[in-house]
Queue: 2 jobs
Job 1
Amino acid sequence: MATPQPRSNVAQIPAYVPGKPPTVQEGLTSYKLSSNENPYPPLPGVVEAATGAVATMNRYPDMGSSALYAALAARLEVPESDLALGTGSVALIYQVLGSFCDAGDEVVYAWRSFEAYPIAVAAAGATSVQVPVTAEGRHDLDAMLAAITDRTKVVFVCTPNNPTGPSVTQSELDAFIAAVPSHVVVVVDEAYVEFVRMDDAVDGVATYRGHENVVLFRTFSKAYGLAGFRVGYAVAHAPIASALRAVSLPFGVNAVAQAAAIASLEAEDDLLERVEALAEERTRVQAALAEQGWQLPASQGNFVWFALGDRSMELAAAADAVGITVRPFAGEGVRVTIGEPEGNDRLIDVAAHFRP
Ligand code: PMP
């Protein structure tokens, strides 16, 4: 008897491997350094705003998320028509593919990069064109340009790149965008933008202002510490932003998430002080690892990358044994989030005893 069959592309969708929760070990505080989360608890005003919204859970959220759109527009100095919210920036990835790709269209991105890209591309019925990152874990923008064909609809530039860490510079991005055909959507995925401390850093908002085909993806999940609530946003000129809103899930961003995101923007100065502390911790960890002889990519995100190939699972197990849970990518490398100083110290210790 015939049974219902999913579209043929569904079988091609790779599985998303989430960061593991910490393994509980008697007498040892464990640290989850596997999902690039912010280790700090939310600031008090954020908890109160979220709790307040919980009281009206019998009502649908404001479908237009009007207060959050207004807050973001004021904060970024962009018109509300140039914004699109999503349930995390991962949803925006689906939205951009769903609104710009027909079956078989090509989507170019660096690899390895964010693992949701191939999943979302396959789900959209589009075709992934993966361009290997360089030995330093950087985007090979020239090779990405060369990979663009007349089937290409979308290009992702993940900066800083998850999981390898490096960012592109503004000069590199400008040259890249100038060479990309103007009908191709260039997504600049800035999930970790708040952690960037470098010369010639990308100014995403200025970049979008200058280009009709550029869209920024940002998130409240990382620096803003709201990963559990699922809010992200896109910034693009109105034709792209309205396409992203058109394919969004109605009532997707829930009321608690909207309230918490607004309160987080209001508490931004304090939040960003914590982000500064994490950036300083990153520098401390990177310096200690360099001192031990490790040559890791120059990460600008809240994580570091050990390109250990076949020995990746071994490092992950060694980390697990001392109570830190990291994110191995079997056969490729290990990504470790910068977390609480104690967790970071344990990473430094594990790395010191692990000979590459
Ligand atoms: N982009 C990148 C590069 C990421 O690393 C992540 C989260 N791991 C996201 C987007 C999605 O984050 P969220 O859906 O939580 O906003």
Job 2
Amino acid sequence: MGVANSSFINACYRRNTGQIPIWIMRQAGRYLPEYQEVRDKVSFQELCQSPKLIAKVAEQPIKRFDLDAAILFSDIMTMLEPMGIDVSFPDGGPKIANPISTIADVRRMTPINPVNDLSNVLDGIKEIKKILPDIPLIGFAGSPFTLACYLIEGQGSKTFNSAKKFLHQSPDVAEELFDFLAEEIASYLRTQIEAGAEVVQLFESWGGILSHDDFAHWVIRPINKIFGQLSDLKIPRILFVNNVAPYFDLINELDNEVIGIDYRTRLNQAMTALPNKSVQGNLDPTVLFGTPEHVREKTLKILDSLESYDRLIFNLGHGILPETPLESVRVLVETVHNYRN
Ligand code: CP3
């Protein structure tokens, strides 16, 4: 079939008349025993630095399930390391030893040249394309706000209140930080495409905690800059926002193709609210802990609620959780693929 005419790429452009495509956020990860086996031997960061291992784990979910896209195996934090940010993953989640708080901190961050500074990731993309030439490959980065949350807070948080306060206490520092991150993200995503990725996804994991006004300023504005800088590449640009519904009016104005919808929102409402976008989502990842019949029912409930399928990419409404039963994933993929042949 070829990547350009795959159901996934066609769905990104709102023109898929075949099977509904599906991939799963965090599809390469700890719920897979074969991933655990790799992780028994190397740390997460070692894994992210080895092109061969990147390709091996990116391929694992594709081997096991009939998924319609692969995603680069890396992390949103990886691009910060060559900028001089000291990132580690001591208890699973990211931790930053030198968080940002002043303009001097922002100016100390080194601009990166991804071809030199992130060559292992880009070589990982080339390795994945060698193994999976016919499966669309998604490259990705974190959004400026989501990266700023970790940079300012220094670690994960339930509220990211320090990051939110920072926007109001030090707007000029924040402005410079966001401009810097937007430039770096755009150039990094461009090199991912040049290395062989066919689609990009930005993860706005934390923007959903912002007021509507702040979302316009700190999410929409920098993301439009990033997407604008990629428009000449003519590749599908996906934005996933965790808690997207309050901002549908702003999202509609974005210059991009696909919006990832979190599990809180009715997918049919998202499709109505975003008439010119393809949508990607949005089964609640915890549904997969139910019986196979339950997984099938909940999946069909979403599918039955929709009026059109030409611009649908099925996915979970956030990343798949560790310990998810493998049989549930199989049932999910089968249910989506059998829905419209
Ligand atoms: O399969 C894929 O989707 C590709 C790989 C991928 C990872 N992280 C691997 C990973 C992707 C796309 C990400 C994105 C990412 N990383 C996000 C955005 C997505 C989201 O969940 O909203 C965020 C916020 C991060 C930061 C991060 N990295 C966290 C919070 C954690 C720990 C907690 C968790 O959910 O796993 C990581 C570590 C991480 N990144 C793991 C994996 C497979 C687990 C590492 C391990 O093997 O121990």
